[in-house]
Design brief:
about 240 residues, alpha/beta, Rossmann fold, five-stranded parallel β-sheet, two-stranded antiparallel ribbon, 10 helices, globular, binds ligand PTJ
């Protein structure tokens, strides 16, 4: 039991959830390493949503609410940390939710779908086909879901699939604490923020942004600028770390 007054309560609760979900087979063992990398970058960010991340979150909402077929792609870490937040975003954006895994097994697909459904997420089902131009198992997806999406939110993504989705002409939005990752640099829009801080902001913005403002956010979206801003926040925090 982690005491709520522990100075690192939030982080410890997230770790505990990742560890429990790894024992249950929802999170892959590699997912534990990915979580640790995220934690390290979040330290550098100051574990806060920066102004530029907030703008990226509003821009993500603008893309989602104006899309024809928006899809949220969920992996093991995202389901473990944010199943309820995915439900909220699905309700606010009307996006479809599809499970897509790097370390894909039928057992994990079933466990993750079950976890999401227990939290009220409507998970797309159907016949999975190898439709993405990738040699690994992330190529498996649903024709009416990821394959036909125009805007796709892929939190905690790997660079290969991000590149493949871009090559198919899709708008790819990622949430990644590492502004230097291949995913961050390849995506149409990268939100450099922690998953459980970012999702509620996107959900809120979905309900608040009027149509004409959405177009402005989309027109002004500049991924490199978002990444540079995140790096500047980290540089600033490092420069003053021991003041
Ligand atoms: O469940 P699976 O089989 O689909 O596997 C999922 C993982 C996450 C293991 C897989 O997609 C993977 O290996 O991802 P990467 O390439 O390690 O990339 C994950 C990125 O997410 C890294 O750049 C981390 O810094 C970042 N990250 C980790 N935790 C968080 C995060 N970003 C935002 N919020 C987090 N909580």
């Amino acid at each position: 039991m982690i005491p709520p007054d522990h100075p690192r309560y939030r982080s410890l609760v997230a770790r505990e959830r990742i560890a429990r979900c790894a024992r249950e087979g929802i999170v892959s063992l590699e997912g534990i390493a990915a979580h640790g990398r995220g934690e390290a970058f979040d330290y550098l960010l100051g574990e806060r949503t920066s102004e530029s991340a907030l703008l990226a979150e509003k821009t993500a909402a603008a893309f989602l609410i104006t899309a024809k077929n928006p899809v949220i792609s969920v992996n093991g870490n995202t389901a473990a940390l944010a199943a309820g937040l995915i439900r909220d975003l699905q309700q606010a954006s009307s996006a479809s939710v599809e499970v897509n895994l790097f370390h894909r097994t039928e057992e994990r697909m079933t466990l993750i779908t079950g976890l999401l459904e227990d939290h009220g997420v409507r998970v797309l089902s159907g016949t999975f086909e190898r439709l993405l131009p990738l040699s690994h198992d992330r190529a498996w997806c649903l024709r009416q879901g990821i394959y036909e999406s125009d805007v796709i939110l892929v939190p905690l993504e790997d660079g290969d699939r991000c590149e493949a989705l871009r090559s198919m002409g899709k708008t790819v939005i990622t949430i990644d604490l590492n502004p230097l990752s291949r995913t961050s640099r390849t995506a149409s829009l990268t939100i450099v923020d922690e998953l459980t801080r970012a999702l509620p902001q996107i959900t809120r913005a979905c309900g608040e942004i009027p149509g004409e403002q959405a177009t402005k956010f989309i027109r002004e979206c500049d991924n490199t600028r978002f990444l540079k801003s995140a790096l500047r926040v980290m540089e600033g925090n490092l420069a003053h770390a021991l003041d």
